[in-house]
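Technical note accompanying the year-one report. For the benefit of new consortium partners, we illustrate the data format agreed upon in the data management plan: each record pairs a sequence with a structure-token string. No post-processing was applied to the example shown here.
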Amino acid sequence: MEFPGFNDEGVHEVQSKHHKYYQSSKTMIPIRPKPKNPSPSPIEDAGLFSYIFFSWLTPLMIKGFKKKLNQDTVPPLSHFNCSDVNARRFLRLWKNEVERMGIEKASLEKVTMQFQRTRLIMNITCTVICMISSFLGPAVLVHAILQHIEKKSDSLVYGVGLCFALFTTELCKTTFFSASWAINYQTAIRLKGAISTLAFIKLIHLKSLNNISIGEVLNLLSNDGHRLFEAALFCPFIFGTPILLISCTIYCYIILGPTSLLGIVAYVLFIPVQLLMAQLTTGFRRKAIVQTDTRVRLMNEVLTYIKLIKMYAWEKSFARTIHDVRKTERKILEKAGYVQSVNTSVTPIVPTLATVLTFVVHTLLGYELTASTAFTVIAVFNSMKFSLASLPYSVKAFAEAKISLRRLKKILVMKDPVVYVKSMKDSQYAVLMENASLSWDNTNGNGTLNTADKVPKGKNVSKANGANDPNSSGQLPELTSKTSAEKDSIVLTTLHSISFSLEKGSLLGVCGNVGSGKSSLISALLGQMVLHNGVVAINGSLAFVSQQAWIFHGNVRENILFGKTYDEERRCLTSAELSETAPGYL
């Protein structure tokens, strides 16, 4: 699978001159002055504090407040966050994994980790520092302050130092927590863009979707990308949970004694419950995907053949079918919602339950419980609340991302079709077919792969990759090889032994009964079928206008340009003509 010519010259220019971490090292500068030649994207000129606290968005927010924010004033996306750049990198990592392990044993999860490895290490570092600060503040420093008050010490410097240290730990916790979110959002944007672009490029390279439903394709491009976005956003917080749990366990045991382990056990026992919830969520998610694919495919068929359904008065029958599919899907989603709601509702109760259980057992055993110790234990258990609160979302995102990666791998392992359309040069013909037999499937009756004919010596027709061959004369090729139909038993061909030539500047109309192969003939010229015998060749490029118009939400100019720059010399209609025919739609 190859990518079309995306424009990533800016990134290659930077990487050719500097190290691959050059832009990241510039972001690590705490405060960066405004450059003389600012980058189109403000995030590329942001310093460390601006990046962490999102202050680089302030000018954009001011424009929005002044109602001056529109399509022309919104800054472009950073080159490093563009989908084409990240998709190329993800594809390179995937190809390396396939070469090393093979297509069947290649791990897409491993490639995903490699794609975000450096950012994941930085994020884990920020998360660990945040968790350590969360522990030091309420556990060590608050306990020291309370003991300082109980002893009624006259050391003012020591008390102020403890308060300043508490302020510093809270500041570090907030700063590194914000840094984690900033890194996670950038990573999630890059991962989602890479995955969605890679899936889209792979799908448009396929000739047909015989083994993939339309619903599965739509879910892959819309829902699965967002699942990976959530996984990159929430899953890194899991790495800080063990550190916080171990630190709190040791410290509570030191200041309270063995009874503190009861509260820790309550936390530990809740982790398998969350893992069980994750397994249930994964199971419901897997079942819901099947129903969603069925519903989307059914709705696509209904909308495609709505005229036929109306003509035969099949509305009620199809409405009942759609209603049944939706009802089944809704029941599965309701069960998944119940599991997630229970998981989310029980999480805030665990700190309170652990605290009450610890203090009740501690007092019943006759141990001493001072105010400073009790308040410190409560603060320690509350500091663990965030790790438990984020754990359900992390586990849920991890479970759903695993399913999404499995669906994406199903697309990536599909073999790319063989390009059979040849290119002609200096020929009087625009389109040429000679004894061409084509089908929509690449197997014969016995399930054996078929191959197209080979044209020896490249005398008259060149391959698509060799369009600049000077030996191409555009004459009719000589067919010398035997067909697959002669070698194998039966080939289920849609078009059989088609021969015609279309000269440049001529107009050709094809008529026939329904199902006679008119649309298949156009698809054969576009390279969307499988060639078993003969030659299909074109001179130059083709423009195809399907029966069903594809118009996206936008004005007339945007639908014509399709993202390209407007060229005044190549315009087909003037603004006055468009204003007369379609006023207000420029």
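Partners are asked to follow this layout when depositing records. Residues 421-538 form one domain.
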